[in-house]
Every structure is written in C-alpha cells, then in structure tokens.
Specification:
Arc Repressor Mutant, subunit A; Rossmann fold; two-stranded antiparallel ribbon; alpha/beta; 9 helices; DNA-binding; homodimer; 7-stranded mixed sheet
DNA sequence: GAATGTGAAGGTTTTCACAGCA
DNA sequence: TGCTGTGAAAACCTTCACATTC
C-alpha cells in the first residue's frame, strides 16, 4: 500500500533513481534474491544506502528492520509508483533512423510501454510493416491518436518539422510526449514534455576527457 | 580566453546545461543573431537568467554588460569548454537496432564525434557497409581500437554481453564509454562511463501522468 | 545483531539582488 | 538604461546518526 504522497514534492532525481532501482530489482528477482538491503541496492547503483532509504521513504515503508526489502514486493511497489503496471498505449511518429530502432527496443514493452501506432509522412513507408505494426499516414494523426486511446507519443522526426507535429499531437489531447528531435519544443503547461538528447552524454564524456582533473564521473 | 577552472568543481548540471546553450547558440547563429542576453537564452531553455549567467561565470566572462553575449564567440567558447572542437574518434560496437540508428545520427558528427569504426560479432554483418564504414569483426577489437586511435567507444550490444565487451574496451586503453545496454557496467576509476537509458524518460512520463498533482515537469 | 525510517545536519545548487560597466 | 558578473541568501538534496523494529 502506497502512502499518499500528499503535497510532498518528489524530486526529479528521486524518480530517476526509482527507475534504476526498478531495473536492479528485476535483475535481483531473476537471480532469486528474496530480500535486498539498502546497502546492496546502493552498491549496485553507486549510491549511498541512506539515499536509497530516503528515496523509498517518500512513498512508504517497504522494508523490514533487520532484514531489508522484499525484492518482488518492492519491485511491484515501484512499478505502482511509476505507473508502469497500468500499461501505456504509445504512438511513434517517424520511422527514420531512430524511430526504427525504437520499434524494436525490447525494454519499452517490458516496462509496459506498448507501441500501438506508427506514423510517417513518407509514402514509401506508409503501409509497410514494422514488427507487426502497419505504418499510418501522418495526415490521420489526430483522429488515429484519439480513436486508439493513445496516451504517450514518441516524436522521432526531423527537427525542422517536430514543432508542427507536436502541435497536432497536443490538439489530439495527448499529455505525455517524449521528443528525440534536437529542438526545443513548445507545449502547453498541462502537457509533459521530456527530451531525449543523445548527444548530451557524449558531450559530457568530451568534457570529462578534456578536463580530467576537475571531473570524477560516472553517469 | 577561458579562465582556468582551477580546483572549482563544476557540477554535472552545469555541464548538461552548457550542452543546451551550445545547441541554442547554433540555432541563434543560423538566425543571424549577433548577441543574446541571458534572459533570451534562459527563455529558450526554460531556465532563469541568473542560472545562465552563473553557469557561464564558472568558466569566464564572456558577455558585455548592457549588451549580452556575442553569439558566435560564446558558441566557440562553449565548444572549447566541452572539448567539442578537437574532434573525437569514436568506435561503435554493435549494429543492431540502436547501433544502426546511431551510425546515421547526424548530430554526432556535427558536434565533432566521428564514428571511425564499427564492430559486430555477427558474421552476416561483418564486412557489410554502414554509411561508408565496413563493419569489423569484434575479435579484432582491442588492436583495432589502438591502431585507429579511438578515444570514445559507444556500446550498443545486448545487456548479456556488454560487460565482456567493456572489459576489452578498457584493456585497449579507452577512457570514455557511452553505454546503451540496460545493465550496470563496472569500469576502473579512471574510465568515464556514461549510461544512456532510453526507458528512463518514458518512465518519468509514466510517473508524471500517473501523479499529475505532484509534478510540474519539463525535461 | 542487523537494517529500516527519519529528523537534523551538512553540502550543493539555484535564485536574489545589486554593484559595476558599456 | 540595460545587462553582466557575483557574493549572499534561499531552496533544495544528500548524508549522518540514531531510535526503532524484527
């Protein structure tokens, strides 16, 4: 049972770490661990035990003093917190380089993100089959998103057209957008927009390698 | 001229924001802006002007009071700070879903990351041509990395084999690794490892959509 | 004894506010 | 006047340390 998170504002870092815990717990579950301590969890993610306990404590008391956390149960709880267990209907827009990779990306399904629709504007791609999904014409975007009860849209189109696409996505009532295009998109306040910037981590590496002294860094 | 960053520890967030500034400056440059204020820069990245000024101030004084920052010059300075202008020799390991997408990802070249080598262990892929690069046999990894003066390695192999691959990469003397596999890798302290976890942002969206009240979030 | 849960302390990052300069 | 650069203040996040529970 998750304690109501009331008006407590949960930090972005905490949520990101929950994702990490979730992944480790999946592994521990496969390795048949029954319980895990904050110490072990911390070690696996290069964090401190206190950090792990504090993160979890925002959402409830999942552990047993003297024993640790029950692996499967905690995994379930985190899935609940992150909303992973409800299953999300996702649409992908753009099957170029990145879009194609995402269609085949197993992690997404595993976490409850099901790509239901794929759109493109290229006549040669429309109608083609990607992992069992027929590519739809972007012209039907708004109606298709609504009819298929899509909740999250992944944008993998060229930067030049991303804003137009997103405007239509917003019109369709979508409240969650993951953007892979290298551009800052504008959306209304009630829409959650996250950007996946694949250059950023490389740039961080570039910085780290160029300034070895000042940096100590793991991701 | 960049003021020596001495023993000042620059935060990861600052570096990540420098990446953002860099991208905006590239756009502003194309739009023929001569100068830009911290206010404008902040607006484009949904930050505060003070944040922008503080970030830049860690590295020097690039602006002119009353006027703002010279766009091209600042862009050059940030490239310098991030080490983007030196040009990096990158090797990609694994041309599956994600690997293939990365080969064609234009942003990398644009920022000075040049994919010079591609490796795979699949006989059907070895010898094939990806955007002008012949896929090499992973068995020659260590020697090829050394001979070609590779500085950064991008790992896009299945999670199950990623650690073995990375061990070899480390043996080859590589100090910068970007990992796309869904697994926590171990590397020595003097190697910079960054993880690109594409599920994480989706999970954040999932959390945000499931807890609309507690969250306000842009990426 | 072992490990959680949590206020309080400590540290880091962001924002404020203003002096200083073009 | 307009906007930077920056100490100081405020906000935020992490770690400590210990009472508590199994």
């Amino acid at each position: 049972m998750i304690s109501e998170s009331k008006k407590k504002k949960i930090s972005e870092s905490t949520i990101r770490r929950l994702s990490l815990y979730y992944r480790v717990l999946s592994i521990l579950e496969k390795e048949n661990y029954e319980t895990v301590s904050s110490k072990e969890l911390a070690k696996r993610e290069k964090l401190t035990p206190a950090q792990v306990r504090k993160d979890l404590s925002f959402f409830g008391s999942f552990g047993t003093r003297g024993l640790g956390y029950p692996v499967s149960e905690l995994k379930k709880q985190i899935a609940e917190i992150l909303g992973l267990n409800r299953g999300w209907n996702v649409a992908l827009i753009g099957v170029g380089n990145i879009g194609s990779a995402l269609v085949g990306y197993k992690e997404f399904q595993r976490q409850g993100f099901n790509i239901k629709l794929i759109f493109d504007n290229d006549q040669r791609k429309i109608g083609s089959n990607h992992k069992g999904i027929i590519v739809s014409d972007i012209r039907n975007l708004e109606s298709d998103l609504k009819e298929n009860n899509i909740q999250i849209v992944v944008v993998a189109v060229p930067a030049t057209v991303a804003q137009y696409i997103v405007d239509d996505v917003v019109k369709a009532g979508i409240k969650g957008i993951l953007n892979f295009a290298s551009v800052n998109l504008k959306v209304p306040d009630d829409v959650f927009l996250r950007n996946e910037n694949m250059s950023m981590e490389l740039e961080y590496l570039s910085f780290a390698l160029s300034n070895l002294k000042d940096v100590k860094g793991e991701s």
